Amino acid sequence: MCAAERDDGMTAARIAALFGAFGPGDHVLGASELARRTGLPKSSVHRLTGHLVTHGLLERDGTGVRLGLRLFEIGQLAGRERGLTEAARPYLADLREATRNTVHLAVLEGIEVVYLDIVRGPDAPALPSRIGGRFPAHATAVGKAILAHSPASVLDTVLAAGLTRIGPRTITAPGLLRRQLARIRDEGVAYEREESGVGVTCAASPLLDATGRARAAISISGWSNRVRVERVSPAVRTAALALSRALP
């Protein structure tokens, strides 16, 4: 690799670190905080943010910066699952109306699920999930539904990363997770009972492509003392099967 290529790579990594420093609820960040979160020198932060502001990817807000409108516009164009989200929207709305609970659409990326769409129900708990947000796949029903219908190498990657405890009943034993996934493959429905958080329960079903692999999953989530997931699971399964057939 030549010096120019190394410099380009370092610059790209630094820019990615700056964007990655913004988390949920971070509207404006100052140079000192960006330097702390990224590990970059404050002088580099000032220089790079100046360039990004010039191109509309960041915007000045007082003494700090916030993510720019141009970045949002690019993100909208880059949505690789945009067609999936649009196709799923009526099915999610129907599930929400039928159950009055929160409905999720998620895909797997690495060892985490990424939420493409969320339709929140009026009777549902205030869940930590958000559109564009991530959660460990092994601790969610949507994640387990996808893992159950993914190549073995995908599960191996998840297990190699370690099954971190997220909620009071998160599965942390590889053998137990494997047994659950085998049952999910047979039944077509995955359950979560306080694995992602206290009091939360969920039923999910995968969206399968023509080869039988999971492209995504949809779920219904609610309070464990108010929702009987076995009763709502047929609705989730039916919607997932119908949506799978409707996808291109």
TrEMBL record:
InterPro entries: GAF-like_dom_sf (IPR029016), HTH_MetabolicPath_Reg (IPR050707), Tscrpt_reg_IclR_C (IPR014757), Tscrpt_reg_IclR_N (IPR005471), WH-like_DNA-bd_sf (IPR036388), WH_DNA-bd_sf (IPR036390). Residues 70-248 form the IclR-ED domain. The keyword Ubl conjugation does not apply. Residues 9-69 form the HTH iclR-type domain. One of its GO terms (molecular function) is DNA binding. Keywords: DNA-binding, Transcription, Transcription regulation. PROSITE patterns: HTH_ICLR, ICLR_ED. The keyword Repeat does not apply. One of its GO terms (biological process) is negative regulation of DNA-templated transcription. PANTHER family: HELIX-TURN-HELIX TRANSCRIPTIONAL REGULATOR, ICLR FAMILY, HTH-TYPE TRANSCRIPTIONAL REPRESSOR ALLR. This is DNA-binding IclR family transcriptional regulator.
